[in-house]
Write a structure and sequence with these properties.
Largest sheet: none
Strand content: under 5%
Radius of gyration: 20 Å
Distance between the termini: 36 Å
């Protein structure tokens, strides 16, 4: 039996929120799927495409940017679907081992249902863009490997589960928040609406993961806390070193007429892209620092090396 660490009244609050404010993707007031897919729009929020800040961006026409950002968003939605699937594996694994009379049990069922809706709307977008090929780009092997480990981590190492869950949710949430409020009028309306629906429900998921982690840390032995800190810091350091976010993007021959593999790699390693990743990681790290997962000495070392300047460690990056 896994002990629920989240206070009952906190779970009940989230339960009420899930009932009162759930975004059903096929309600026309949530997402209007009839909006045409064309080459007059862009499909990635400002600052989040691999094109932004790269040498590629100025030389591309609107039609070319439209196709490339649509390719990018579609690949990301396909990969995000896999991520949500893996998260659901973890949540269902935990559910099997907790008290079904605790309100957290019902909330986790709400979260699974909401993640299934997210998977469905991401998949609808992928199917709507059937000319974009998303198979065989490396995501399948990566997702399979992670899914094998997920049930073990979920039931044997709950502190690591909730830390990784928090990071995954936060990384996806940042792009979604930008899309929901992006002033770029060329951003496609379905992208904007889809991301807005995601933001509303992810806020509850992030809060639940953080609360469980905070309460669990209070009961952990010092050696276990140090082990969690080392694994978390190693994960984040790898992301920063490789400039490789939680939801990866792989090259495809489909974009070869416009972007070579070499130019694609350069764009992913551009100063703008590195700064974006530092802001994303910095926002999450600020919260993990507050609750005692990421250590001060590690932050000082990252600052000295330039891997993550301390001025990037700001929780307001999550707003």
């Amino acid at each position: 039996m896994i002990r629920v660490e989240v206070p009952r009244d906190f779970s009940e609050t989230l339960n009420r929120g899930s009932v009162a404010k759930r975004c059903y993707p096929w309600d026309v007031n949530v997402i209007d799927w009839s909006a045409p897919i064309d080459d007059e729009h862009e499909y990635m929020p400002s600052g989040f495409s691999f094109l932004h800040g790269s040498e590629l961006e100025p030389r591309l026409s609107l039609k070319e940017r439209s196709f490339l950002t649509r390719w990018e968003f579609t690949c990301l939605m396909r990969n995000q679907t896999q991520g949500e699937h893996i998260l659901n594996q973890a949540l269902l694994g935990v559910l099997y081992h907790i008290d079904p009379y605790d309100p957290a049990y019902r909330y986790m069922l709400h979260e699974v249902a909401e993640e299934c809706q997210h998977m469905s709307m991401f998949n609808d977008w992928v199917r709507l863009n059937s000319d974009i090929r998303t198979r065989g780009l490396g995501q399948d092997q990566l997702g399979t490997a992670v899914s094998v480990l997920t049930p073990v981590i979920a039931t044997r190492f709950p502190a690591l589960l909730w830390t990784l869950t928090f990071l995954f949710e936060v990384f996806g949430d940042q792009m979604a928040r930008r899309a929901a409020s992006d002033p770029n009028k060329r951003l496609h309306p379905i992208v904007r609406q889809l991301m807005k629906a995601h933001v509303i429900e992810e806020a509850r998921h992030v809060a639940f993961a953080r609360e469980w982690l905070v309460r669990l840390l209070e009961t952990m032995r010092p050696a276990s806390r140090r082990a969690l800190a080392r694994v978390t810091e190693t994960t984040l350091a790898t992301i920063l070193r490789l400039n490789f976010p939680f939801v990866p993007l792989f090259y495809s021959a489909q974009i070869r007429p416009l972007v070579s593999r070499r130019a694609f790699r350069r764009a992913l390693q551009s100063p703008h892209r590195r700064e974006l990743l530092q802001r994303q990681v910095g926002g999450a790290v600020a919260v993990l620092r507050e609750i005692g997962v990421v250590r001060e000495r590690t932050l000082r070392r990252w600052d000295r090396s330039g891997r993550l300047p301390l001025d990037r460690v700001d929780r307001h990056a999550l707003d």
